[in-house]
Structure prediction request, 291 residues.
Amino acid sequence: MDWKDRRRRFRDIIEGERCIRPASVHDALSARIAEDLDFEAGMLGGSVASLAVLGAPDVMVLTLSELAGLVLRINRAGGLPLMIDADHGFGNALNVRRTVEELETAGAAGLSIEDTDLPEPFGSGGTARLLSLEEGVGKMRAALAGRQDPDLVIAGRTSAASINGVADAIARAKAYEEAGVDVIFLIGIKTRADLDAVSEAVSRPLIIGGVPPELDDWDYLSARRVRIALQGHQPIAAAIAAVEATLRALRDGCHPSELGSLASPDLMRRLTRADSYEDISERTLGRNSGD
Prediction:
């Protein structure tokens, strides 16, 4: 498939003048819903991918091939530009390069590589730790080396603000900017003072993970070059709750006809693109053609 158009649209967002809210998606249908509701981009989080593929928590047991397969299935379902949380790139710098190659082939419009020491090393005691700055820079360079389509957006992601403080986040952001990443992805920015400091220190566009109340002003975020502000992953949590509630009701004797808040037949037809399948059936299988 040709992924160029969606990548160019996503790069236009990153290089544009305003901040957007991406839709958190987890499968083909959720991505189609987001596209039909006019979201400009989708976000596939690492924790969401682990839930969708394995039903596992975010403990780094998902493999690259499993993630790439999910990304491809989401992308082939529509034209929504998709940003991927590629975590630590599944290993060292060589693995990062391979990760970029696989996710680019699967249609990613953008992806982030982070500098957290993952998977959790022995003896960490459950406390998040960062790679050295030198290794983090090496991973960013490897990610850029793995890119073949220049329109693919590479984000350098750091949780330094929540682990070591904003000064280290700034140092890492500046180093990743110098390495050549397209955008800086920041986790743990909680105050305007911290965001102002980062925005003044680097010139690349920014992505922030989570929008605390103090930052919940899209004009302010746009003025600080934040182009994507994540809102969490409520859709998959809502889907899980809906499935659990429906199955519990059926288990407890509720008749299917009594269930409410179900997807209507019209919605299901639209989301499954049923008309296109019926058109092909008529033209190739002779169904409903009068033959």
Notes: Strands lie at 23-24, 42-44, 82-85, 110-114, 153-158, 183-187, 206-209, 226-229. The chain has a mean pLDDT of 95. The radius of gyration is 21 Å. The first strand starts at residue 23 and ends at 24.
